[in-house]
Amino acid sequence: MKARWAWWLAALVLVAPAAAAARPLRVGSKAFTESVILGEIATGAVRSAGVEAEHRAALGGTRLLWDSLVSGAIDVYPEYTGTIVEEILAGDGFAPGQSSAQDRDRLASALAARGVGMTAPLGFDNTYAIGVLGDRARALGVSHISDLRAHPELTFGFSNEFMSRRDGWPALRRRYDLPQANVRGLDHDLAYRALRAGTLDATDIYTTDAEIQRFGVVPLADDRGFFARYEAVVLYRVDVDRRFGPEAVAALQRLAGRIDAPTMVALNARAKIDRVPEPEVAAAFLKGQGHLSVAASRRQPWRAIAARIVEHLELVGLSLLAAILVAVPLGVLAAKRRRLGQPLLAATGAIQTIPTLALLVFMIPLFGIGTVPAVAALFLYALLPIVRNTHAGITGIPQHLRESAEALGLPPGAILRRVELPLASPLILAGIQSAAVIDVGAATLGALIGAGGLGQPIFTGIRLDDVGLVLAGAVPASLLALAVQALFELAARLVVPRALRAPKAR
Amino acid sequence: MDDDQTPPILRLEAVTKRFGAVSAVQATSLGVRPHRTTVIIGPSGSGKTTVLRLMLGLLRPDAGRVLHREVALDADGASGLRRFRAETGYVVQDGGLFPHLSATDNVTLMARHLGWTQGRIAARVTELTALVRLPGDALGRYPHQLSGGQRQRVALMRALMLDPGLLFLDEPLGALDPLVRAELQDELAEIFQRLGKSVLMVTHDLAEAAILGHVIVLMHEGRIIQQGSIDDLVRRPLSPFVTRFVRAQRRFDGARAEGRL
Lengths: 506, 261
Prior knowledge:
- With 506 residues, chain A is an alpha/beta fold.
- Chain A is built from 23 helices and ten strands.
- Chain A has helices at 2-19, 33-48, 62-71, 81-88, 101-112, 134-140, 160-164, 169-176, 188-197, 211-215, 240-244, 246-253, 261-272, 278-288, 301-336, 338-353, 356-367, 371-395, 399-408, 412-442, 455-464, 467-495, 498-501; strands at residues 25-30, 53-60, 76-80, 116-118, 128-133, 156-159, 183-186, 202-206, 217-219, 232-237.
- Chain B contains ten helices and ten strands.
């Protein structure tokens, strides 16, 4: 029985990459609204050219999308020239700020060397700017970035990506000699609310952000010419032509020059301020552009949540099952071979210290994006509590009981099965229970690498500033954790021997 | 009393066992005679339990050999040791019963592992229940639901289940109150007599040793000081320690003899 499950699991891991060969063209997008809209538009354009395509929306940041593109987990995603120069090709001698046709050719050939093609610019430049609330800017007398030097007491909050980019905060501070020490990273979509609430004085904004008008934010003039140009383009793998026919890339190329800055701000505002789902925003745009009308599929909200719960349970169930099959034997081994035990416990403990998101990202080069890497990461997370509790359960058996079993003449396997595992079962089950609860929580982050689950509505909700959507993910996730807790209390009644359950009545 | 000169069924040959820097047993030789009860007695830390655990193969000697019918215990590896243990029964102070198994399941665990038939198991359990005088309703209970005396009776049943030739008991009555203890001492003497087992038992109580033992082995600081009958120890002590140990255990007799009671 156990062996059969192990085979299934091995088969799953082996077959998953092979199955990718026959899949539809896969478009990715970054985890912010504009990228999702562009991803939706690219998907729609490819579909209307007769190529089957799917959109893995809001996967994560630049590094994740680029790695996914190069590894073939996705085929297409929207990007910005400044990001390509500063982040992706960093160190290849591309000076920021240039965007002549010549420079674009050099950029294109550098990308081609990596097996990636680039469309002509889509028509707008979404560069970074430093934004301050209009009233606040007037009160401080600030209109240029260099004016900020006179106000070292200001609080800055930047998107996590901007904090760490080569052309982000550290370089900006050096260029302008900015004195502010109170600087922190946060989600881009939360920054506008923090500005309005007064907890932040300045943040990084994109020049096509829908909120600029809505919140009355003023972009400060870049008087030292620091920020590069960020012209939107679409990147695609050069093997798309071979795998999906020339129509796909041709359809993407036709988007060039079709989206100017006011159009993009309007599309962003439709999605973020009017709360129109991105697929509909994109479909309306494409229809206006004379593409075949592409029906934006819209699922019933409750059916959608049910599907997310199923995905979530799949992530937790598969990873937990694999973890039990691996961790219980490991725990037994750690208890039996002391020299192996300490390194084993230390290793599983070390995995636990890796932040969940980082662990998920580490899985991408190995397993691509989607369910498999998420399950792998959750599996690794679930190991520690189970290994540790199995080890503690077995080593905690009193010596006279172990020797009584030995003295009966039982072989080691029978001692393990009939004496040690039953005596350790309450602790082992408690370990599995905490692993399950950890996994239910951590699985929400799976949405960031395209694994779906209840994190999907949570992150979409944060992106769109839609509390209802956040709750639609968060509430079922909490209930699920409670349900798992209850389930294990029930399981304890079945697995743990009767005499070990009640407190000893002696 | 001990005029039986048949060779020992199990013996230590110049065995030394150290725990870290402490020598628990030093160059000790000792035999268990067939169909006789050998009782090791001595103060705490004298090495008596270590001798018993060495003879069961639960500990390996640092020097010397443990011989079963003149063959080294570990001569045939782990499986040989397991065959030896199937021919032995073992009872520890608080029974060593598995808390997750009922009395019956404790008793029949090894027989079930060996694939005995239901009928054979049931017949043997009935026989043993009568032998150790266990109330029938105790069989379905878990160890924590049994009295101390009942636990020891169940442990004895478990040890006797496969009808082993050798029986090891480590302070089997040590945790019982005096009345139950006295009752079980008499019953054990009768059972050993009736079954004719070769028994090795550890106790710290001289009266218990006198009631149960054909041979009494007095240990002190890892060495055997004297072995023989209770009469030998009382009348012909080989060292002042023997006299002191016997006196300390017979203060009631001494007090009566001096007219203090």
